[in-house]
Amino acid sequence: MRILNASDFGELIKTTRKKSGLTQAQLAASSGLGERFVRELEKGKPSCQLEKALLVAKMLGIKFEVNISLDQVDRPHE
Prior knowledge:
Blueprint: H1 6-19, H2 24-31, H3 35-42, H4 50-59
Helix pairs in contact: 2-3
C-alpha cells in the first residue's frame, strides 16, 4: 500500500486494526494512548504526532520501508 498522506495512513491503521479484531479502545490501551488519538489517526487528521502514530502502527505489527536514493534528496546549498 502506498501512503501518500495522513488519510492513507489512517486507512491503513483502521484496516489493520479491524483485521486484528481490535476495537479502537483496545488498540488505544495496548498503545498507552487515548481513544481520541486513535479515532483522529484513523480519520487521517494531519496534525497527529508522528511518534504516537508510529507507536500505534508498531502495536499492529506494521513495518515501514523507505525506498529513496541519496541522489533524490534535495540538499541545502552549502
